[in-house]
């Protein structure tokens, strides 16, 4: 018995060590780093989308200023489906060609591939939007608009 136990213990130690190491690994999709809403998504939406999707200039009824309003969606209903970017209008409109009237943004400049990936991964990661973060339009609308 003794020689066998001696052999088994190092094996068990290696196995346990491996299990412990694996417990520290991200659950899956190790190639998709966690998107930081405040650092990555907020500036992107603010610079490319908020101009036309905030309370003063509310295109298609879609207001992206707060989590609650963004999750409520626009005239077509919810535009963010947490976990499912391909079903989320917020992401799908970015992939449309300009032959479509709903291609976003409607201006000729497309959203860059790396920004597309940020939005895709953010929605895939269940679209976390920390409390207390509000998005702002790029312009100072109150002083430039009269309505
Ligand atoms: C220059 C103004 C403008 C900008 C900038 C803009 N949008 Fe829009 N958006 C519109 C208009 C206008 C519509 C309605 C289009 C139509 O169907 O005629 C719309 C519609 C949408 C819809 C459909 C909403 C619904 O419920 O049907 C989504 C989603 C959307 N925009 C997302 C975005 C995103 C994401 C960005 C930034 C990447 C963006 N938009 C930037 C003007 C804009």
Indicate the topology.
Blueprint: H1 2-23, H2 37-48, E1 53-54, E2 57-58, H3 67-72, H4 89-95, H5 113-124, H6 141-144
Antiparallel strand pairs: 1-2
The structure holds heme C.
What are the main properties of this structure?
two-stranded antiparallel ribbon; 2 strands; mainly alpha; 147 residues; binds heme C; 6 helices
What features would you describe in this structure?
This protein has helices at residues 2-23, 37-48, 67-72, 89-95, 113-124, 141-144, and strands at 53-54, 57-58. Helix content is 43%, strand content 3%. The mean pLDDT is 85. It contains 6 helices and 2 strands. β1 and β2 (57-58) form a beta hairpin. It binds heme C. Heme C (HEC) is lined by residues 48-49, 51-53, 59-60, 62, 73-76, 79, 89-90, 93-94, 101-102, 104-107, 111. The site of heme C has 24 residues, from α4.
Biggest sheet strand order reads 1-2
Mean pLDDT: 85
- Cα(first) to Cα(last) distance is 88 Å
Number of domains as seen in the coordinates:
1
Shape: globular
Structure described in brief:
The chain has 147 residues and is mainly alpha-helical. The chain has one domain (37-139).
């Amino acid at each position: 018995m003794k020689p066998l136990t001696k052999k088994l213990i190092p094996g068990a130690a290696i196995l346990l060590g491996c299990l412990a190491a694996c417990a520290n690994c991200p659950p899956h999709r190790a190639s998709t780093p966690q998107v930081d809403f405040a650092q990555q998504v907020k500036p992107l939406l603010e610079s490319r989308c908020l101009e036309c999707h905030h309370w003063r200039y509310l295109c298609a009824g879609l207001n992206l200023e707060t989590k609650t309003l963004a999750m409520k969606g626009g005239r077509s209903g919810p535009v963010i489906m947490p976990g499912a970017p391909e079903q989320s209008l917020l992401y799908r409109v970015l992939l449309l060609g300009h032959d479509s009237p709903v291609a976003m943004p409607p201006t000729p400049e497309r959203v860059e591939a790396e920004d597309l990936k940020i939005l895709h991964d953010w929605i895939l990661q269940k679209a976390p939007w920390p409390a207390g973060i509000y998005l702002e339009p790029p312009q100072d609308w109150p002083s430039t608009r009269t309505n």
